[in-house]
Amino acid sequence: MSDLPLIGGHAPGTSAKAFSETCVNLFIEARGKSGILRNRPGYERYDRYSISSSPPIDTAQAVNTISSVGAVATITNTGIASVRYGYEVGDSITIANATDGDWDKTWIITSVATDGLSFTIDNTEHSPTPVDEASDSPATVIMAAPTTYKKEIRLLQRYDAGSGVVVIRGVIGNRVYNWSHVGGAWIEETAAAHRFISMNGAVAGAQMGDLLADGVVLCDGISAIMEGVTSLTLTKTGGAWSSSALSVKSNTATFMDGFIIRDDKANTGRFIYSDLYDASTENPFNFATAEGSPDDLLAVLADRRELWMFGEWSTEIWFNAGGKDLPFQRFQGGFIEMGIAAPLTAQQFDNSIAWLAQDRRGGLTVVRAGEGFQPQMISTEQINVQLNKAAEYVFNAFAQVIRWEGHEFYCLTIPGNYGKETMGITDEPTPVTFVYDSNSKEWFKWKSHDDLMETVDHGRWFMTAHVHAYDSDAKAMAAGTSKSFRNGHMIGGRDGSGEIYLMTPDNHVDEHSGGSQVIECERTLPAIYGPENMRVNAGPIELVTDADAGENISVDLSYAKDGKSFGTTVTRAVTANSSRLMWKKVGRARHWIFKVAQNTTATLPVRWLRLLSKGVGQ
Questions:
Q1: Position 8 confidence tier, pLDDT thresholds 50, 70, 90
Q2: Stretch (H or E) spanning 580
Q3: What is the residue-wise DSSP string for 361-427?
Q4: 83 Cβ partners below 8 Å, 6+ apart?
Q5: Residue 147 has pLDDT above 70, yes or no
Q6: Are 201 and 418 within 8 A, CB to CB?
Q7: Of the residues 44, 137, 183, 472, which has the maximum number of CB atoms within 10 A of its CB?
Q8: Contact 445, 390 (CB under 8 A)
Q9: Which residue in 40, 1, 15 sits closest to 505, CA to CA?
Q10: Cis peptide leading into 146, omega within 30 of 0?
Q11: pLDDT (tens digit, 9 = 90+) per residue, 374-398?
């Protein structure tokens, strides 16, 4: 009897039926424990000091005109002050204080203007049909009860508000908010006329410092393109937010050496930079062009004081040379014949940079910067196949990097349906989140439970935004303010809650406002073939753990004899007498693929998983 070459101990898994062909092996790694089957952390609703991160509360917004054409009533605020409402088709809104009281009801939005300044309802939704409101109507509009603004959390940033208070700034829907455990509620910073136009998708941003009053620039260039609306660049330097102070529209922004640098969407290859520590205005002379290739400049990212310029087909690396007229110059040899397929996928990762790459020869891969700036492919053949199947939709992809228990994860999400309508795409691409572990060099899929997501988002992890909200006890020794966010990882995204969550190391549950869900995980083992195409008797299969019966641990095993069709699941549980799980006399075949799955909240520390087998006649 001979062991087939299968398995080591630690088997990091993923969420809900997640990764099948993307995992090529199992391996042994301590992580301070025995190996663990599951590697996606759970999260909980943030309730520090009995204050939860409830979604923002919408406030009444001005309406001075309601005009009808047939059954279509258009609601806007014209001639006084523009209001970029931040509502979407299907939202339920309530009108109040109208001159004709028949408007003062709850309505369903049927369309939204591309500039976000007006929306329509069906004026026959209620009877009788109201009379139009003139340009001086006193009406207001607000989200229908409970008036919460449950939109996608698109960006999270960490700021120091002084006296040990850490503040989270977030872009939610088209608005900018801040939140802290002291105030206990989201507070909108943007005025109604200076919100984003786009409502969904990741937003890029760069900060001049970590104080709330420091300058900041936010860009929705990619999201705006995907939604078919005008992109905006918002800036704030100690005063009010403005969507008009910066005329150059950008996909991304980055900070380096006192400058905020941005790509220029309107001019091929051009990037612009702010005045030193002043992001409030644009100096028309502060620009340069990445000229190594005539492609569009799509993204910028600073790492270790190197400025990476990602074009469609090429990448250039610049540095701050201290020049009077132009501070930045390209490194000698700082040119790569490989560009970026999705601007928001460029991230600092594992003391390097990773991004979703493409070049003129075609094909998508995930690469990281290696020695001498040269890209090294980290995506596997299976990942590359799946990426290229989704090539039509990847421009709106984005990435987040999370360091968790010593593992650094590059989380690449292709949102799928988001934005497809304005691109003329009529099929139904499935959203997906691919995750690369810098320690194990393996890929996984992370997925939120379908019950926590809208149907169009099924298949991906809900997270769009992430921030490590680190604290410092040295800034305030008072117990009520130090460690205000538990030095935790805060995440938010497209789960329809408008809440931020705190990632947790031990609770294998996604705790959601709409109900909690256990994080299921599934590991598909490498295919096994009998020698010289002989049929092989498989079994017993043995999994040895450090767990005890009190932890209520069970493991499901299923297998395919033809490489694709998995049969009945067989469950084994840890008992009081043994921590060894055994599956005997599985059967015989020429081609085996095994799946191991766990869907309980207990941690499963795996010492090893091994298959014993023998050929027919042995």
A1: very low
A2: strand 580-583
A3: T--EEEEEE-GGG-EEE-S-HHHHHHHHHTGGGGGG-EEEEEEETTEEEEEEEE-TTTTTTTTT--S
A4: 61, 62, 63, 76, 77, 117, 192, 193
A5: yes
A6: yes
A7: 137
A8: no
A9: 40
A10: yes
A11: 999 999 998 999 999 888 888 889 9
Starting from the edge strand earliest in sequence, which strands make up the sheet with 72-76, in order? 61-62, 140-143, 92-96, 106-112, 118-122, 72-76, 65-69
Residue 2: per-residue pLDDT: 30
Closest by CA position to 260, among listed 275, 250, 246: 275
Residues with Cβ within 8 Å of residue 349, at least 6 apart in sequence: 368, 401, 408, 410, 438
Give just the sign of the alpha carbon dihedral 584, 585, 590, 593: negative
In this predicted structure, which of 1-15, 106-120, 227-241 has the lowest mean pLDDT?
A: 1-15
Which tokens is 534 given? 């002989």
At residue 541, the pLDDT reads 80
Beta bridge partners of residue 294, listed in sequence order = none
Q: What domains are there in the chain, each with its CATH number?
A: 2-38+521-615 (2.60.120), 61-143 (2.40.30.20)
What percentage of the chain has pLDDT greater than the value 70? 82
Give the tens place of pLDDT for each residue, 252-308.
999 999 999 999 999 989 999 999 998 888 888 999 999 888 899 999 999 999 999
List residues bridging with 463 in a β-sheet.
493
The β-bridge partners of 242 are 235
Residues linked to residue 526 through DSSP beta bridges, in sequence order: none
Nearest of 29, 96, 37, 26 to residue 61 by alpha carbon: 96
Instruction: Please name the helix (run of DSSP H) or strand (run of DSSP E) that holds residue 221, with its range, or none.
Output: helix 221-227
For residue 89, give every residue at least 6 positions away whose Cβ sits within 8 Å of its Cβ, in sequence order, or none.
Answer: 109, 110, 111, 112
Provide the 3-class DSSP secondary structure of residue 590: coil
